[in-house]
Structure formats: structure tokens, C-alpha cells
Design goal:
The protein is of the alpha/beta class and 295 residues long. The protein has a domain of 186 residues: NAD(P)-binding Rossmann-like Domain (Rossmann fold). The chain has 12 helices and 13 strands. The strands form 4 sheets. The chain has a 7-stranded parallel beta sheet with strand order 3-2-1-4-5-6-11, sandwiched between helices. The protein is globular.
């Protein structure tokens, strides 16, 4: 049995689907089972639990051979990042160790490092969670995905909407920082393989698609796919920060926050170690195909 945390989230649903496509038994952790009908339709068993409730994690882990840990926050106060992502991971690892779990597959994020851990609470929580996983004594695999693109979630639908309705294409700053987006089904395939493949544990793998591009190049490719001729405008980061200052105080999941701007300003978000490609040898979706699928 494979426990998947964050199963009702954007990445989680795709990972559960990939595991069930291989006929692997899945137990999906959900804060409220009423949000899990889709998971049940794929044959997953849904168990209610929360990363802030250690007892619920112990119940969820019972009888599991492997754990795929996907829970993460994008925004909120630093204390909440610590409580959900760091303390929650610690409690989950303790339950996994007590329950005899044979493998722990953990989702981190590309850009996470000792150098960046003090930039924003997100990186700090990812870094500290990675340290907990590595020190747990469990056989582990850690993945650090770049921007995850999909038609049904993540940040790409926001970009596509902007390309469709905005009179100009707004690019943050100079647009010269590089990114390496990876398609959601490729991410899910990595996680599904990591659960059982021999010789892959004890390592951190950076995940990116086949194409590393600047933000300028990304927007040109998206406009080309959409056959758009709208002009490009580079928006200074301070102006975007004013916008984020207002929007991140609105209810709901805001795509642009000041923390995200800090992360974007820091530098390139590209793979520096080809170990994932060399080890798993998955065929990856090129960026132009990703954009065509979403546009």
C-alpha cells in the first residue's frame, strides 16, 4: 500500500492517477473526504487526516509500504509553513519509521538549497523538510521539480489567460532569468517510478523539462503557439511588488506573491544535475508541446 499525502492537490491528483494506472494500491490522505470523489473513482482508498494532526498521520501510515509526500504551502504566515511543512513532515517520518515503511518519496522544489533557505519561508520549509527526510534513516527519494506546467492547474493557465485577454504581454523585470518547465504527467511518472525502482534511493533529483528558456523566450513561444502579435512590456519588479502587496491580501490562492517575486529575482530556476534524466530515462514533453496542450 502506498500512502499519498497532498492527494487532493494539483500534483497529488496526477500522482495518484499515475500510480493507479500501474494498478498499485493507493491510500490518499485528505483533510475532508468529500473532496476525494475523483480519487475514489480511480480506485484509491481515501483516509481523512491532516499534517497538523500526528495521530491521524499514524493511522494513515498503518500498513503502508511506501509514502509519497506532496503536501506544501505556497503562501501564508511563516508559522503555518513550519507547522504544516516542517513539523508535519517530522511527524509523518516518525510514523513511517514506527510503521516499518520501506520507502519515502518526498517532493521538494528546484531552487531549494542552503544558500536560498533564508530567502523566503517556502524555501526554508522545503530545506528543513529535506534535512529531516535525509536524517530519518528511511530509504528516501527527494525530487526537486521546476515550474510544473499543466492544463488543469499550476501557474500555466494564468499565463495562458493573460496571453488571451491582456492587450500586452507583461514580463516581470528583464525577463532574462531562465526556467525549465516540466509537464505534470512527467512529474507524476517520476514519482510513480520512484516508489519501487531499485537503485534510486538516498539521492536528490532535480526535475525539469527538455527546454531551459528565459522568461522572454517563454512568452515568445506562448504567443507563437497562440498566434498572438501583442506587444511585450517589461514591468519593473517594484511595481509588481505593489500589485502583489494588494492581491496577496485578497481571499483565495493568489498566483503572484512578494515571496514568489523574491524567488524569481534570485536567479535561474534550471536543472544543474542531470541525474534524474540519466537514472529514470523518461521521455519528457518538450516545452512547445506543453504550451500547445494548455493553450
Amino acid at each position: 500500500m502506498i500512502l499519498v499525502t497532498g492527494a487532493t492537490g494539483f500534483v497529488g491528483g496526477h500522482v495518484v492517477h499515475a500510480l493507479r494506472a500501474q494498478d498499485k494500491p493507493v491510500r490518499a490522505l485528505a483533510r475532508e473526504s468529500r473532496h476525494a470523489a475523483r480519487l475514489e473513482s480511480w480506485g484509491a482508498t481515501v483516509v481523512e487526516g491532516d499534517m497538523t494532526d500526528a495521530a491521524s498521520l499514524r493511522r494513515a501510515v498503518e500498513g503502508c509500504d511506501a509514502i509519497v509526500h506532496l503536501v506544501a504551502l505556497r503562501q501564508g504566515p511563516e508559522e503555518r509553513f513550519r507547522r504544516v511543512m516542517v513539523d508535519g513532515t517530522r511527524d509523518l517520518l516518525a510514523a513511517a519509521g514506527a510503521g516499518g515503511v520501506a520507502r519515502f518519496v518526498h517532493m521538494s522544489a528546484l531552487g531549494t538549497s542552503e544558500e536560498t533557505k533564508d530567502l523566503v519561508p517556502y524555501y526554508r520549509a522545503k530545506w528543513e523538510s529535506e534535512q529531516l527526510v535525509q536524517e530519518s534513516g528511511l530509504p528516501y527519494v527527494i525530487f526537486r521539480p521546476s515550474f510544473v506546467f499543466a492544463r488543469d492547474g499550476g501557474i500555466l493557465p494564468t499565463f495562458v489567460k493573460l496571453a488571451r485577454i491582456a492587450p500586452v504581454t507583461p514580463i516581470i523585470g528583464s525577463g532574462r532569468q531562465r526556467i525549465q518547465p516540466i509537464w505534470i504527467d512527467d512529474v507524476a511518472a517520476y514519482f510513480a517510478l520512484a516508489v519501487g525502482r531499485d537503485g534510486v534511493t538516498g539521492r536528490i533529483y532535480e526535475l525539469g523539462g527538455p527546454d531551459a528558456v528565459t522568461w522572454n523566450e517563454f512568452w515568445e513561444r506562448l504567443k507563437r503557439v497562440r498566434r498572438s502579435r501583442r506587444p511585450t512590456v517589461h514591468v519593473p519588479v517594484p511595481i509588481m511588488r505593489l500589485n502583489a502587496f494588494v492581491t496577496e491580501r485578497l481571499p483565495g490562492d493568489i498566483p503572484l506573491t512578494n515571496d514568489l517575486l523574491t524567488m524569481l529575482e534570485h536567479g535561474d530556476n534550471v536543472v544543474t544535475d542531470p541525474a534524474a534524466v540519466e537514472t529514470f530515462r523518461l521521455p519528457l514533453v518538450p516545452l512547445d508541446d506543453q504550451l500547445r496542450r494548455a493553450a
